[in-house]
Automatic annotation (TrEMBL):
This is Enoyl reductase (ER) domain-containing protein. Residues 40-363 form the Enoyl reductase (ER) domain. It holds the Pfam family ADH_zinc_N_2. Gene3D superfamilies: Medium-chain alcohol dehydrogenases, catalytic domain (3.90.180.10), NAD(P)-binding Rossmann-like Domain (3.40.50.720). GO terms for molecular function: oxidoreductase activity. Signal peptide: none annotated. SUPFAM superfamilies: GroES-like, NAD(P)-binding Rossmann-fold domains.
Amino acid sequence: MAVLKLQSLKPRPISELSMKVGSIRCYVSSCRAVLLPRFGGPEVLQLRPDVPVPDLKPNEVLVRARAVSINPLDTRMRSGYGRSIFEPLLPLILGRDVSGEVAAVGASVKSLTVGQEVFGALHPTALRGTYTDYAILTEDELSPKPASLTHVEASAIPFAALTAWRALKSTARITEGQRLLVIGGGGAVGFSAIQIAVAAGCHVTTTCGNQSINRLIAAGAEQAVDYTSEDIESVIKEKFDAVLDTIGVPETERIGINLLNRGGHYMTLQGEAAALSDRYGLPIGLPAATAVLFKKRIRYKFSHGIEYSWIYMRADSEGLHEIRRLSEAGKLSIPVEKTFSVTQVREAHEAKDKKQILGKVVLELD
């Protein structure tokens, strides 16, 4: 399918930009985007008006972004996490989550149409992220936006929920009646995991700070333990079929492993692949990470009879559509604590760095 580019430095309404003329789909060739030219603090982020919009591949979708959420991965990448992988490829566009409208589609895209409201998330290693007026995602990374949610509300969900989905559904394969422990249920991934597990008919226990207890109980957790004032191992008396550890320090790993039934799954978000690659470089770091993971899997298999996994978000079309269904049914949501204009991206990152805002932060693009 041929593509005709239209020159534009400022975003215009979808009706002006996304039009189908025979077999030609038209879209802008440049737009605003937040660039990361080097690693550092929030001050390194640059909002530029004329960042190129690449040609669409056959399976890709151009999305006019209306809201994008800030994930911990964004602030960590900005600070240098994954340096060994990303530094040769600077400048980057940060951002994984997006909610907006379809502006154009690639030749092989069948499930989405121009003008349709969508939400979705890019994989963790994407170089061109979503802090931009026009984001590019594959068809499998997008789903129709839940009609009951605003773009701000929808943008907070996909990356965190898909991370939790991969842990619970693809790795642990939780089933009705099983028991799940979420270590760190107050964050977006942990909160998503609680809601997904409850919707699947599981019994959920979680650890969290005191300020999150009521919210997690309301989401369906049967027990919420304040790790700041209670001894987790003394308070929790039962064993679990799966443990999702969103904190991933040695102490929470030890606790999680010891609270598992034989045959259970321990899953941590804090895999060491990027950290070891940054420390030793890709040629040494990646093999070292593989060796660490293999060693832990073997050790815990023989010592405790459990499965051990590092969890990363990945595109999952089936999972995203189920997340949409749960959101539509009011069974899955991630509260947004504050919104910023994309022109205030530095302020938003600074607030997250200083822990001035503990909940979800969303950037709006007008």
